[in-house]
Structures are given as structure tokens and as C-alpha cells.
Amino acid sequence: MIRKKLDFGRIIIGIVLIGFAFLCLIPFYYILMVSFSDPALVKEGEVILFPKGFSTKAYEMIIRDQKFFRGFGVSVFRTVVGTALAMIVQCMFAYAVSRKHLAGRKWFMKLVIFAVLFNGGIIPTYLTICYTGIFDTIWALILPMAVNPWNTIILISFFSALPEGLEESAVIDGASDVKIFFKIAMPLSKPAIATIGLFTAVSHWNALMDAVIYINDSKLKPLQSYLIDLVMRSSTQEMFGSMAEQEIPTLSIQTAAIFASTLPILVVYPFVQKFFVKGVMIGAIKG
Asked: What string of H, E and C letters represents the secondary structure of 232-280?
């Protein structure tokens, strides 16, 4: 009887989760459907639930736009460099704080927790970026996100759970702290690193407000700034000028640009999915 109740509960939970997943997929399905549908049918409002016709004219227009590629390049650079820098800094700091013999370890932990609970705000951050001389540079998009306190706490929890015997054996064999970190701690922490790395990469790729606040140079605007500018335009003529073709409606171009911007994350995610699931579960248990 108890087993039947448990099975019934799992069925209900499964139905609810499938329903939420379906709701999350609807916007993405609509964007993909409209972007590849015949622009003439999209303009007439005949595309509702299912795609009609097939056309890549919207993608061809996006490809011919230099602003799209420039923004795409900026987003790729900030995501790759920003994620690499963030993981290096956070992993080194987290590993050092996770070691019990570190002098002042408790104070470092309190500092991280304080940073989680309290944020300096937009104005202090803006002044800091201005006074450090990185305003209107690509580093204004990268350096402020180099350390995430919450991700650092997760990494500290993960490194603390590593067997101490491995480190002691390495020390007996003459390994330095740097060698222990790169040869033992990092390989054993791939699930946590992949999970935090994915979160960081997605945050960099989707970030918009930092570019709006700290970047004035149009050549340094990331892809998200291009997308918001495209979505806010009332017609393609305002965005593309003579490049815009009358038979291509604004909606087709907007959906094509949005799908193209999500494609890199969709390509990367399957490669880190196995680490992602394991890292989330371990972080939830150990945290």
C-alpha cells in the first residue's frame, strides 16, 4: 500500500515536471518555428502553432549584418576569457580557504559570506570601474564577474570534502601545494568545476546591463545589446537600412537573431551535462 502511494506521488511529480518543461519549451519552439517559416506567411499572421513554408531569408539578413558578428565576437570573447578567469580565481581561492591549516581561514569565510549577504550596489561598482580605468573597455565586462561569492562557497564545500589522505600522501612524496592543487584537487573536482563553469558562462553570455552601464563604444557592445536594440526597433529599416527587404517582417528577423544567439549555449551544454547533474547533486548534499 505504501509503495503504491509512493509510485502515485512520483507519477504526480513527473507530470508536474513535464508540464513545467513544456511551458519552458513553448517560447523556444515559437522562436524556432517563426524564424524558419515563410516571411510572407509570418507577415500575414498565418503562423501560429505550426511552421508554414520554409525560408532562411531572415538568417541570411542577420549573417550579412556586421553588427551581429561584432556583437557575437565580443560575447564569445567575454564568455571564454571571463569564464576561464573566474574559474581560475575562484578555484584557487576556494581551495586555499578549504584547507584547515590556512591562517585566517575563518576571516576569509566570513568575508565570503558577507559578500553573499550584502552587495555594494550599482553606484559603488560604477565608481570603482571608473577609478580603476577599465570603463568603456572589454575588462569592464569581465573583471567584475571574476569572483562570485555563492559559487565560491560551493567550491569551498566541494574542496573540503576531498580526502585528506590524498593530500598527506602527496606531501610525503614531496609535492608542493601548487602541484597538489593542479594534479589532485582539480581533476577530482571536475563535476563542481563544470557546473560552476556552466553557470558562469551562461551569466556572461546573457549579461546585458553591465554593457549598458559601462560600455559606450559600439564596437564593444556584446550580442545581447544588439538583440535588445533589434527587438526595440519598430521596423527592419531602422536597423538594417538599405539591407532590409520589404518582404521580410521584423518578427522573422528578431526570432532568427534570438535563435542564433542561443545556439552556442545549446551546443556546449550536452558536453557538460553529465558533469552538471553530478555537480549539482554533490553541491546540494555537501553544501
From this structure: HCCCHHHHHHHHCCCCCCHHHHHHHHHHHHHHHHHHHHHHHHHHHHHHH
